[in-house]
Amino acid sequence: MQRIIGGSGLSLLQGSTPSPSIAIRPNSQVNLVAKSKPGNNRNPGQKRHRGLSLNPHKRVSKPQQSPQNTQHNTSQRERERRIEAFSPHQSNPAIMYGGDEVSAIVIDLGSHTCKAGYAGEDAPKAVFPSVVGSIDQMDVDDPGNPEKNSGSIPDSKNVVRTFDSEKSKGKNKLYVGSQALGFRRDHMEVLSPIKDGVVVDWDIVESIWDHAFRECLLVDPKEHPMLLAEPSSNSQQQREKTAELMFEKYKVPALFLAKNAVLTSFASGRATSLVVDSGGGSTTIAPVHDGYVLQKAVQSSPIGGEFLTDCLMKSLESKGLTIKPRYSFKRKEIRPGEFQTVDLDLPNTTESYKLFSQRVIVSDIKECVCRAPDTPYDESAYSNIPMTPYELPDGQTIEIGADRFKIPDVLFNPTLVQTIPGMESSAETAASVRGLPQMVIESINKCDVDIRRELFSSILLSGGTASMQQLKERLEKDLLEESPQAARVKVLASGNATERRFSVWIGGSILASLGSFQQMWFSKSEYEEHGASYIQRKCP
Amino acid sequence: MLMMHQLKFERLVILFHNLFQLLLYVYTKANAASGMAVDDECKLKFLELKAKRNYRFIVFKIENQQVIIEKLGTPEQSYDDFTAVLPADECRYAVFDFDFITNENIQKSKIFFIAWSPDTSRVRNKMVYASSKDRFKRELDGIQVELQATDPSEMSLDIIKSRAL
Q: Among the four A18, A51, A296, A465, which has the fewest Cβ within 10 Å?
């Protein structure tokens, strides 16, 4: 119902006749259009326009732009006006969303990326790193300098954006978002608010939320219920602190905390399943039964996407390759098609920022070339593997051979880390961690006998690292060998890469958009009456 | 006298209030549940299936934010008739009354609850059914075996038999 009307809205915008194929498809872009209206009505128009011109890259993928992609801001505004002009046709939310309209915001703050967006959509609107750049105000001598690095965006806008994105926290200035982190700044340290799945710095978390609300989604948190995804093993204090912040600082009308694993499980249509969530910072295995996480059987290991990225980086470095971050050189075209790179000397760049920029590149290499081997990695068997070329940002082409298979195999056999030069520091932690299949079996064995069969037959893969090629097949194969005879092992992962990567967010998005879910929210009045600890009862 | 009445009344109010709180607690306990309502007809027909054995199966669906009955199967219908009723790309709940003979040659029957959520169905559809299941299942008192199936092979007759025994 809602799609049909949203869809016709889209085709109206494009100036063509309503097409049924657009109308029925679960298309996030259709929703983008439909959703932008209530937002528009609530936000001051001026703010909206500012957002549009500030974040042009976020809009590029929108469908209504594709036909006229070459035109810029003026036509964007014109389209915006046209959207508003059409809004009277669709202003009745009951018609638009089949009565499901609650306009909630869904945020999944992971250890590596933060996913934020409007409930009811098929993919998060904003995906940005959940680390921030921090500059100690004492050190800053020339704040205008970093802005010069941005060639693509005119200065006037840039100033506004910087003004928006930096939150002065005491004496530290914080920079949040992919764009703000993309600029190198003198003395900027890159900090993460999360250590071992636990929030250690709430100031940074606040700045990330601020960024999501005010710059990415352009909403006033006072007006929208907030659904937050939380790690399966979140502690009581963490939950209460979250509730306190949300109600006291952001004054949200309602809040809900949902467990990552439960959302993933529901989004795949199962109330009972074993969720293997391999994310950026860690890998967590959580059994879910009838919508509850079985806390005692949750297993986790620090080996996630970032760990693999580090392994790959160290391995490449040991072969004499240096990954030059994008900011550290300039490329000039000397003759058509021929480039020259000139290294820049930037002595004030911090180590953590250099590492952050290098990780961005290496994680792209990893995503492009790596693939889980079908059988446990064996140095001799893979020594003659054909090399795969990859072109680095500075133009040099590197070739990656056995590492393509060796790095992903660390997930299955963490002791491999010891053979990677430069990773000695983590070798000890890695040695104490078991491989993925062993963790899965251990987790299942800690559950009640009655549900083990069910868990074995619905193992769900989710998270960014789950998109690794052949990971699903390898895990299934290893589990078949190690599981009891009677068990019917089935590993499931959504065929759609977006769904796999954002399954938690998508689950939250749907849940929060259900009309019937409205009664489940932890409301502001309940918070005022019972206090933050009531969250344990409302969102167990 | 009036005082006493008033006192009694107050006590009643407190009692009802407590009961209400208790009920509220029971229903809001479910984790991340969708809060979907259940049509009374579902319970009634399920009771008929359980006690009078009037039906072989019942297929439920969610519509307008509540669980309603979609189809009722007569006692003569077979398991194949039942699976044919389930749509290939949409989720459903179903209850099936399964007759079988045990290894000791004893005629028995068991009531199955099946959560049908095919992989090909839309994410939203799956989410709605999965998050409402726990609450709905609790309404149906007397389910003996529970099954979740995402493709026909997960609810084949062999699996049903093996779960029944």
A: A296
Chain A residues inside the 8 Å CB shell of B92: none
From A229, which residue of chain B is nearest by alpha-carbon distance?
Answer: B32
* β-strand partners of A330: A342
How many structural domains is chain B composed of?
2
Distances (CA, A) of A267 to A187, A247, A261, A386, B126: 43, 28, 10, 39, 6
Distance, in Å, from the CA atom of B15 to the CA atom of B20, rounded to the nearest integer, reads 9
Q: What ipTM does the predicted assembly reach? A: 0.71
* Boundary of a domain, candidates A96, A128, A143: A96
Q: Hey, how many other C-beta atoms are within 10 angstroms of the C-beta on B19?
A: 10
- For residue B39, give every residue at least 6 positions away whose Cβ sits within 8 Å of its Cβ, in sequence order, or none: B66, B67, B68, B69
Radius of gyration of chain B (CA): 20
CB pair distance less than 8 Å for B130 and A537: no
What percent of chain B shows pLDDT beyond 70?
Answer: 81
Three-class SS state of A388: strand
Task: Please give the interface size between A and B, counted as residue pairs whose CB atoms are below 8 Å apart.
Answer: 111
Helix, strand, or coil here: A488?
Answer: coil
Say if residues A163 and A221 touch (Cβ distance below 8 Å).
no
Q: Which of B121, B131, B146 to mutate to test binding with chain A, by most A CBs within 10 Å of its CB?
A: B131
Closest-CA residue of chain B to A294 = B31
Cα three-residue angle A512-A513-A518, rounded to 5 degrees = 65
The maximal CA–CA distance of chain B, rounded, in angstroms, is 71
User: Beta strands of B30-158 (E only): which ranges?
Assistant: 37-38, 57-63, 66-73, 92-101, 107-116, 145-149
**Claim to verify: residue B88 and residue B8 sit in the same structural domain:** no
Is the Cβ–Cβ distance between A37 and A48 less than 8 Å? no
The pLDDT score that the predictor gives to residue B57 is: 93
Return d(Cα B35, Cα B8) in angstroms, integer: 35
A interface test, pick of B29, B124, B140 with most A CB neighbours within 10 Å: B124
pLDDT of residue A165: 45
Res B4: pLDDT: 61
pLDDT of residue A171: 67
Between CA A43 and CA A224 the distance in angstroms is 12
pLDDT of residue A35: 39
Only one residue has tokens 């750049």, namely: A133
pLDDT of residue A70: 39
Domain residues for the domain of B127 are: 35-164
Distance, in angstroms, between A470 CA and closest chain B CA? Answer: 20
- Which of A386, A411, A431 terminates a domain? The answer is A431
Q: Is residue A280 part of a domain?
A: yes
Residue scoring higher pLDDT (A427 or B89):
B89
Domain range for A446 is 269-302+433-493
Please state, as a whole number, how many other Cβ atoms lie within 10 Å of the Cβ of residue A243: 24
What stretches in chain A show pLDDT beneath 70? 1-102, 138-171
Same domain for A289 and A317? no
